[in-house]
C-alpha cells in the first residue's frame, strides 16, 4: 500500500497499491520510505530484502481538490446504489434531464441507476416517469469520495495496512 508523505493513503477506492516490484524499485530510487514489511523476502545472489507492505512517499503529492467526473466516481458518490430503487447490481448512469432534451453529462445531472430503472425512465423527465432520485446529484469533494470509498474495502486487506486506512480525517459533512 502506498501512503502520501503525510502517511495518508493516496486514495481509498481504489486503494493505492503498487506491485512488490514497483515498491522495491521506488525504494532503490529513494522515492519512498519503507513503513511496514511482509514476512516474505526477495533474494538475489548477493542481496536479500523483506518485501515492503506499506511505503510512504518522500515527497508530498498534493491531492486533487476537484475529482474527475467518471462513471466510477458517480457510482462511488452514489455508494454503488441505484438512486431510484436502491438496487446494487447492474448499475449504469442516468441523466436526470435526458440528453435528448438538452441534459448535460455533469455531476449535477447524472445519477447511478440500475438497468431496469434506466430503461423504465428512458428519455422522460422525472415528473413524466414519476421517478425521483433518493438524493439530488451533486459535485462531490475528494473527501466525500474518500469517505464513501472507505465503506467499500477491497476483498483483501493485509493486517499491516489497517493502521493507515481508517483515520478520522477532515471530511465534509
Mean pLDDT over the residues:
89
Supply the number of helical segments.
5
Distance between the termini: 27 Å
Strand content: 15-25%
Number of separate strands? 5
Order of helices and strands: EHEEHEEHHH
Which structural class fits the helix and strand makeup?
Answer: alpha+beta
Shape designation: elongated
- Report the helical percentage: 10-25%
Instruction: Give, in spatial order, the strands making up the sheet with the most strands.
Output: 1-3-2
Low-confidence stretches: 167-173
Gyration radius, rounded: 21 Å
Written account of the structure:
This protein is α+β, with helices and mostly antiparallel strands and 173 residues long. Helices cover 20% and strands 21% of the residues. A 3-stranded mixed β-sheet has the order 1-3-2. The chain has a two-stranded antiparallel sheet with strand order 4-5. Strand 2 (32-44) and strand 3 form a beta hairpin. The longest helix has 9 residues, at 20-28. Mean pLDDT is 89; it is low at 167-173.
Describe what is shown at a glance:
The chain is α+β, with helices and mostly antiparallel strands and 173 residues long.
Strand and helix layout:
Elements: E1 2-3, H1 20-28, E2 32-44, E3 47-57, H2 71-77, E4 91-95, E5 110-114, H3 115-121, H4 126-129, H5 142-149
Parallel strand pairs: 1-3
Antiparallel strand pairs: 2-3, 4-5
Question: Main attributes?
Answer:
3-stranded mixed β-sheet; 173 residues; two-stranded antiparallel sheet; 5 helices; 20% helix
